[in-house]
Amino acid sequence: MNRSMTMDFVLADAARDANGPPRRPAPAAGRGVREGGMEPPPSEYAQRGVVWILDDSLLEAEMAARALAPGYEVQIFTDAAAMLERVAGGDLPDVLVLDQVMPSMSGTEICGLLRSRAATVGLPILILTVAGQEEDLVEGLTAGADDYVVKPCPAAALSARVGALLRSKRLRERAERAERIAAVERDLLRALIEQSGDGIMAADARGALRICNGEAQRQHGVYASDARDALDALRTRGLLALDGRPLRPDEDPLHRALRGEKVENARWLVTRPDGSIRALAGTASPLRHADGSPAGAVLITRDETDAIEAERALRDSEERYRVIISALEEGITLQDERGVIRTANASAERILGLPMAQLVGSTMLGPSCRLVREDGSTFPFEMVPSQIALRTGAPQSGVLLGLERQGGSVLWLSVNAQPLRGADGSVAGVVSSFFDITARKRAEEERQDLLAAAQSARREAEAASHLKDEFLATMSHELRTPLTAVLGWVRMLRTGKLPEERRDKALETVERNAQAQAQLIDDLLDISRIMAGKLRLDVHPIELVPVIDAALEVVRPAADAKGVRLLSLLEPGVGAVAGDAGRLQQVVWNLLNNAVKFTPRGGVVRIQLDRADGSAEITVSDTGQGIEPAFLPYVFEQFRQAESGTTRKHGGLGLGLTIVKSLVEMHGGTAHALSDGEGRGATFVVQLPLAAPPSHDRGRRLAPLPSVSAGSDRPPELAALNVLVVEDEDDTRELLVTMLEQCGARVTAVSSAAEALLAVKALQPDVLVSDVAMPGEDGYVLIRKIRALPAASGGRTPAIALTAYARTEDRMRALRAGFNTHVPKPIEPAELLAVLTTMCGSRAGS
Q: What's the CA angle centered on 233, arms 230 and 238, to 5 degrees?
């Protein structure tokens, strides 16, 4: 008989390759490779995967790489051919991040090429696209991409998409490994069936014989290639009862099992084709699909012709053998009436991690092992399924328990127990079967953890979005409020109907609100520089007393106007700190201004300077409204305000204290807030490390920089000075001309870079004052053209850049272009005149 054909019914898919491809090693870093440096935790899902990024834009590729570097080994390719060459060499990533639009090959073409190759047909591919390219996106997904993201994509979203693809790939690989293991086990089962000393036959649900091993063929005396057909005919006509009469169909064990009946220890006779009769005994069991529907029946037979006299012994052996064989994929142990293990199968060794010699003679789940429930409590030994079955004779099914191993890890088992009975019906032992469900438990726990993390991330994102919306609304309010006053008073001034005594008030209001707007913009620029890591400090040894005094003088008018007393207690011998005097004055001013703002009329704001444990300690306290305990931990966070909405009592963007903390930490110090609650005032404490001053400079203080006030007399250096002004905005140009002419300067004003270049050649001005942002050619182009001129044609004319772009990098760009200095807008007349005075004095000296 063709034995491979007889096994098709059960083992049709057992021919799959049980040896999967080995895991390739992670490639070494090379050209075009950027590696993350985080060491992964020892978990299958946390192992660092290899991610390739293919993008013709190196900048965008590096941005994506930075987003993924904390959790993955990232390699960047800007050339599709180089990436495909690596793939052809057998070097594959775990995930490929692929730009859709590239000059040489599109993402769709690359996807189609990779999906056409057996080695890369399952490679996870993530398409990068931009909004509005839905047709390209559909083509990429149709060509085989697994997912996509729209650029620009937040780092967290990109990392989450890559992580999802990597987890899916690893789950698929694990399933494939499990399938290969199952194939090996099916091959083992097939070998066991073929090598079994019992005859094994199986029929499908229609009764057609599908399996007949060699022993069954021998028992029935059938050896032809058409053995199944011969056996079907033989079982129809050649079966006899023990008394010699023909066996009725309803007595045939296989037919009874097909009807759902389990037949044990049945006996019958079979008439073989050569005329001999053999006595057979066996067991028939119904087979069912996973949903419980009939799948057929199996018949296990023994030739008892020569062993009828050993009927009782064979009956006992048959029961034990049947129970063990019925659960080959499970861990199985056979225990006697005392609970001692007498035998176990290979699956029990594998699951429990114990050799057979250690299992036999033990109780396995005895008192020496700590058993736990799902909630971590101890699982009583007397409630173990095998103990209950021995004690009560009742079978146990699906009991979940944990076996605590050395080191604290827990092996989770689903345990069944079936009692064995002796001839007198008493319990003679128990068969325990169990599955290892540790991986399933871990997956469930990880799913719960991921769900909790996702919910937490969503709450945080919603809170951040709410804060952003509040900040934008607040910023709109804070910018529009002073603008309303400025526009309103300017329109009233233009009517010419304001009394003289109200004109000065109107001008004062316009100036104050314009300065408020400028301060808001400065705060936004400061927080932008801090967040980008681009804020730079001009660090020198400085004494803090002059810095604090200067801040007090700035805040004092506002405090006096509000009726708030300012008290200072400054210890003179605290010592110098290494810092930026201007930024530290900004810290003190912010704290004092904040205290005055939240202190009612008649209150007191106190500032104190002390030395404490090698640090200079600045304490600003007030008798104001205080801080609620729930808000205190968030007081330094950006955009956070205790009040929000349209009912706020105090203005501001909520950035001042954030700037304070950031500046203090940049100086190596700390800042923290204290308050006993609402209505009890607040205290802010700043600690800065003291600097060890050089011996030759010990005790020296930083003198304040001289400045030109708005009310000073015209500087004598500007008299008869030839100034060329370049400004495309008519109002600003007229303001500059008026300001400089009032100081005695001779001013020529033009509105474009082309006119300015002609004026420089023709007039040879003493100083050039130029706007940077202009239509056509900007100030950078103009100054480069001027610096290219000979000195006799004005190529060395001192130049001042005026611009509303006030970042540090904007100033550096102006200096690199050829300007001598940089003055930000809005223009402070005193600052511009001081710069002109300094520049003219330097030129005269040279």
A: 110
